[in-house]
Amino acid sequence: MYETKSSEEEEAHEYIRNLISNAWKKINEYQFANSHVSQAFIEVAMNLPRMAQCMYQYGDGYGVVHLETKDRVKSSLIKPL
């Protein structure tokens, strides 16, 4: 039996996608803004949201291993560029 997503669930997903998009815009603004913070610190701070998006973009990529997350980690760490 297949269940269809309700319009409320779709609206919630779209809302979260917009929040993520806006957050990335702000993060990128801060990255390229002239500030007194060192570039090394900014790069380290940028890696946290990148990793979070990579791990949780397709659901709980840490607690419940999905093939999407596993494949992404393999392509990042094991397969050569």
Characterization of this structure:
The protein is built from three helices and no strands. By secondary structure, the protein is mainly α. The chain has one domain. It is flat, with a radius of gyration of 17 Å. The model has no long low-confidence stretch (mean pLDDT 77).
Structure described in brief:
The chain is mostly helical. Helices cover 68% and strands 0% of the residues.
Would you tell me the overall average pLDDT?
77
Task: Tell me the structural class.
Answer: mainly alpha
Instruction: Report the portion of residues in β strands.
Output: under 5%
Which percent range fits the helix content?
Answer: 55-70%
Biggest sheet record: none
User: Compute the gyration radius: what is it?
Assistant: 17 Å
What string gives the helices and strands in order? HHH
Shape: flat
Protein name: Terpene synthase metal-binding domain-containing protein
Organism: Populus trichocarpa (Western balsam poplar)
